[in-house]
Task: structure prediction
Amino acid sequence: MRPTPPSTHHLLRIDSSSRVTGSYSRKLGDQFEHAWIKRFPAGTITRRDVALQSLPHIENTTIAGMFTPPEQHSSEMVAALVQSDTLIAELKAADTLLLTVPMYNFGVPSALKAWIDQITRIGHTFSFDGSNFGGLLKGKKAHVVIAYGAGGYAHGASFAAANFVEPYLKFLLAFLGFNEVITYNDEATNTNPAGIAASHAMITAQMETSLKGVTA
Result:
C-alpha cells in the first residue's frame, strides 16, 4: 500500500494597510505567515495587497450582474464581474484566510471594504432561499490581525463601543460560512510604544498555538 501523501494547504493573505513600512498589522501578518509555513512547509500562498493594488468599487452594473442569473448577463455585466470572479476564486481555493487590518477612524480601511464588497456575493459566497441565509465558504478558517492606534477596544473595556472592526469581520466571515475566525488584537500601537515588543511576542505565541491543532 502506498503511503498517503501529506495534505497541501493553501493560504490566502490579504493586506490592507496604507503604510508599506512601519505597519504593525503587516509585521504581525509576516509573523503569522512564518508560523504557517513552519506548520505547512509544503503549503502554498497567494498574497494580495489591496492597498497597493487597489480594487474597483462595485458600481451599478456590478450590482445588477450579481443579482441577475448568469445566462441573462449582458456583456457589460460579464465585464463588471471579472474582478469579483477572480477574487472569489482565490478565496474558494484557500484553506486558510489571513487578513491584516489596521483600524482607520474606527472602521476597516476602504481598500479592504472594496475587497469585501467584491467577494460578498449571493450564489457564490452566500445563499438566500427566501427565508434564510447560508454561508457557502465551508471548511475554512480565518485569522484576522487587527492593529489599533489606541487601547481599550477589548470587550468590556473603555473604548469597546468604538470597535467596529473585530465584530464586523467576525460576523461577516461567519456569515460567509467560515468554520472558525480567530482574531489577534494589537492595541495601543500609537499610545504605548514601549509595550509593542511584549504585545507582539504574546500575539506571536497565540498564533503558533492556534496553528498547532491544525492537521497538516
Observations:
- Confidence is low (pLDDT under 50) at residues 1-6.
- DSSP finds seven helices and seven strands in the chain.
- The two ends are 21 Å apart (CA to CA).
